[in-house]
Design goal:
539 residues; eight-stranded mixed sheet; Rossmann fold
């Protein structure tokens, strides 16, 4: 707003440089009067605004600026600002100078021939360039050189240094303000040696009405470009932070996919172990039937209670305990993996939080209402939720619940009643087979066709056992799988519900900031186009 309001003011020419670069003597030479105090020590400790006035006077102005008026013709068209040195002892003077630079329409930057392009000058020139100001370099005190060769070397050094620092090569005027003053005060013979004429011609001819108007318009455009550029950098910084957050969310998502794949693969392997137990039982059952259900063993088959006891010991054996053990191991494994996944998510969030803290070392923390503040609040919230989940994770309770579900899976096979154990379920599953075997023994003993019936009954017993165990195996595996899938979905949903607010925040902020960046980039392009148009002289 200030830069736009200044369009109604006179063209503002700012003279800047180190305190001993001869700024005051340069201004006096340019104006043709000894208006500014000169000396070998810093003589300008305040900003002076030189304006046209009927009388020579000096009055305090706003914000520590002194206004000096004089009846000098050049000041009718141009206001001149004399600033403290860029290396001023009092840093508030340097800060005031830096604050005044954005208001300028053109900056004449003086560097001394005996100390050209010092570190403080380079730093200050960089600040001026950031504001998009047109800069003209003045190499003062060229009368100190004893030869033209020395002068040309310094001019080349300043030109190359300015090109590296500013980018484009600004206008450079080598002058001697001291000789120019002498020429204007009774020593015209030193005028050519001062080389001041080229600079005066630039000020009076190049900065004619059209040139001043063009630079005047470039002032708010430069300020606007500076502000837009800073805002783009700020938005891009936020987008970069959100990109890291998106990577975190993507990493969590990938980990969940890998976790699910690993769990599925390991679960199938553990189910295979349970399958093998039942297959082994079926194999023992077939061997038992082959051994016992033959003509030579008919006397032994008469004692059905003994045969049943042998069947339970040799065929059923420790099957129930082995399956119970495998199911228990399956339950413990699922609980342990679920806890590990929660711990992994918590670790990811803790690492992201630590990375964010590292970026704000030395600061008191992000301000409320900023992206950093909102993001950190959500990360903290999610971190607390996952840490609480890990801390409160009761492995025994979770295992008991899953074990209960596993037992219910056996009940759900339909081969056992509610409340029975797996051993009872297996016994009931094979009892029907056993009854079918023993139920025909009497008929076998009495029938003349026993030699034919017994092999048939043996094969039927094998088939019945295989069918019963297959049904038990299928339903047990099916129900355990359903329980496993249910627990996997429940665990994934818990993590998703915990991370979801942060994920929504990241997506919404990315969309909003991307839109803001696109608008700012378009605005920056418009400002750049306007600047190039004006710099091309098409006004």
């Amino acid at each position: 707003v200030d830069s736009i309001q200044q369009l109604d003011e006179l063209f503002l020419l700012v003279i800047a440089g180190e305190f001993n670069s001869g700024k005051s003597s340069f201004i006096n030479a340019l104006l043709g009067q000894n208006l500014q105090k000169e000396g070998v020590t810093p003589t300008t400790d305040k900003i002076h605004l030189l304006k046209y006035g009927a009388d020579t006077a000096q009055v305090p102005g706003d914000r520590g600026v002194w206004v000096r008026t004089a009846p000098i013709e050049l000041l009718r068209q141009i206001s001149i600002v004399d600033t403290p040195g860029t290396n001023a002892i009092l840093r508030e003077h340097e800060a005031l100078t830096a604050e005044f630079i954005p208001r300028s329409d053109l900056v004449l930057f003086l560097t001394s021939s005996d100390r050209p392009f010092t570190e403080s000058e380079r730093n200050f020139l960089s600040q001026i360039k950031e504001w998009g100001k047109k800069i003209v370099l003045v190499l003062n005190k060229i009368d100190l050189f004893s030869s033209d060769e020395e002068l040309e070397q310094v001019i080349q050094f300043v030109t190359e240094s300015a090109q590296r620092l500013i980018g484009d090569i600004p206008a450079i005027f080598p002058v001697s303000a001291r000789l120019a003053q002498q020429a204007k005060h009774g020593k015209p013979e030193v005028w050519n040696a001062s080389r001041f004429e080229a600079l005066e011609r630039y000020v009076t001819e190049t900065l004619d009405d059209n040139g001043r108007f063009r630079l005047k318009l470039l002032n708010p455009i430069g300020v606007g470009s500076k502000l837009v550029g800073k805002q783009i950098d700020s938005v891009q910084h936020d987008l970069d932070s959100l990109s890291d957050d998106s990577s975190l969310l993507d990493d969590i998502q990938r980990q969940m996919v890998y976790y699910n794949d690993d769990m599925q693969r390991n679960f199938r392997a553990r189910l295979g172990e349970i399958d093998n137990i039942l297959f082994s039982m079926e194999k023992r059952g077939n061997e038992f039937f082959d051994e016992r259900m033959r003509i030579g063993r008919i006397p032994d088959l008469i004692n059905s209670s003994r045969v049943q006891r042998d069947f339970e010991q040799e065929v059923v054996g420790e099957t129930a305990r082995e399956i119970d053990t495998r199911v228990g191991e399956l339950v413990d494994w699922m609980v342990e993996q679920d806890l590990r996944q929660w711990t992994a998510v918590s670790g990811h969030l803790a690492k992201r939080k630590a990375e964010h803290v590292d970026r704000v070392v030395g600061e008191s923390g992000p301000r409320e209402g900023t992206l950093a503040y909102d993001r950190q609040r959500l990360i903290d919230s999610i971190g607390r939720a996952t840490q609480q989940a890990v801390a409160s994770y009761d492995k025994q309770r979770e295992a008991a619940q899953l074990a209960s579900s596993a037992r219910q899976a056996v009940v759900n096979t339909g081969l056992a009643g509610v409340g029975v154990g797996l051993g009872t379920a297996l016994a009931l599953a094979t009892t029907a087979v056993w009854l079918d075997v023993t139920g025909v023994l009497a008929g076998v003993m009495a029938a003349t066709l026993g030699l034919l019936i017994l092999p048939s009954r043996r094969n039927r017993a094998k088939l019945e056992l295989a069918q019963k165990l297959a049904t038990l195996r299928h339903k047990l595996v099916t129900n355990l799988t359903e329980q496993f899938e249910r627990e996997m979905r429940r665990g994934a949903q818990r993590i998703e519900d915990t991370v979801a607010p942060f994920a929504r925040f990241v997506r919404a902020e990315e969309e909003k900031l991307t839109e803001q960046r696109d608008v700012l980039v378009e605005l920056e392009a418009h400002l750049t186009g306007m600047r190039r148009y004006l710099e091309g002289g098409e006004v």
